[in-house]
Specification:
There is one protein chain. The protein is an alpha+beta fold. The chain has a six-stranded antiparallel β-sheet with strand order 1-6-2-3-4-5, with helices on both faces. Helix content is about 45%, strand content about 15%. The radius of gyration is 22 Å and the shape is globular. The longest helix has about 35 residues. Keywords: Membrane, Transmembrane, Transmembrane helix.
């Protein structure tokens, strides 16, 4: 006679195994870039020079252009680093859906780790995060080398949604932040409190570190996925989470059914 408790435990274990396999298969879809490290290694300046914004002529390359400008200010050549290919900027995150091109946070965090930058995500709407950002841009939070730069994600109607820009300096007297934006020629300044109130969503503080071209990027990938989720509006985030849960449950069920079918075929072929 079968033990119900044991049968239930075995079923639960098989279901967890199927879920894990399906999740492993699904996770790579949340990144679009090449995982190969940069073919070159260049010395990162401890103190960046003045940033020169890149010009954007499409709807999706803002992340690549903002990071390219930051790389150049730290003495790195974005072309030699194959930055566009490794970020997957021109590759649809969802196959065959051209509107899903752009820079995903999962790719971004991996590339930054490979190339020698610490990436610290913060919520600028939180008072602690706001203070971390201003101190970082003044050179007092992460670094003892003076001003450091940051990537910022804002919402904008100009390119139909989310837009990456670079922060290079904060003036505590005027409370203005200096911005490098691929949609605007040259550097310009805006009130940081006003941006926080209006359209500033997330910020990634950047700090030169040791390059890790062949390291493990699992944690960086998960941090990027978390940043992707946190940049979504609350209602959309709930909808996406429900869809992902449904997809994972359905996929794990189908995976378990497939394993069961293969096992039965294997047994029948041996008998």
């Amino acid at each position: 006679m079968n033990d119900p408790l044991k049968s239930g435990t075995n079923f639960f274990r098989r279901w967890l195994a199927s879920l894990a396999i399906f999740t492993i298969v699904l996770a790579p879809l949340l990144q679009a870039g090449s995982r190969q490290p940069s073919p070159v290694s260049q010395d990162i300046r401890r103190q960046p020079r003045e940033l020169t914004p890149k010009v954007q002529d499409d709807d999706y390359s803002c992340g690549f252009l903002a990071l390219s400008a930051i790389y150049e200010s730290y003495g790195l050549d974005p072309v030699e680093y194959r930055l566009r290919e490794r970020l997957g900027t021109s590759v649809p995150a969802i196959p065959f859906v051209e509107s899903s091109t752009g820079t995903l946070q999962a790719d971004l965090f991996r590339v930054l780790q490979q190339d020698g930058f610490n990436a610290t995500p913060i919520n600028p709407k939180d008072p602690v995060g706001y203070r971390q950002l201003t101190r970082h841009l003044e050179g007092g939070y992460l670094s003892s080398h003076g001003d450091q730069y940051a990537l910022a994600l804002i919402s904008t109607e100009q390119v139909g949604g989310l837009h990456w820009i670079a922060f290079t300096h904060f003036d505590p007297e005027s409370e203005e932040v200096t911005i490098g934006d691929s949609l605007i020629t040259g550097l310009h300044s805006k009130s940081l409190p006003s941006m926080v109130e209006d359209n500033l969503l997330r910020v990634i503080l950047l700090e030169p570190a040791l390059a890790d071209p062949y390291g493990s990027y699992g944690i960086a990938h998960l941090r990027g996925i978390g940043e992707m989720a946190l940049s979504l509006p609350p209602l959309l985030l709930v909808i996406v989470l429900l869809l992902l849960i449904g997809l994972v449950v359905a996929g794990s069920y189908l995976t378990r059914k497939l394993f069961r079918s293969l096992r039965l075929r294997f047994k029948s072929s041996k008998s």
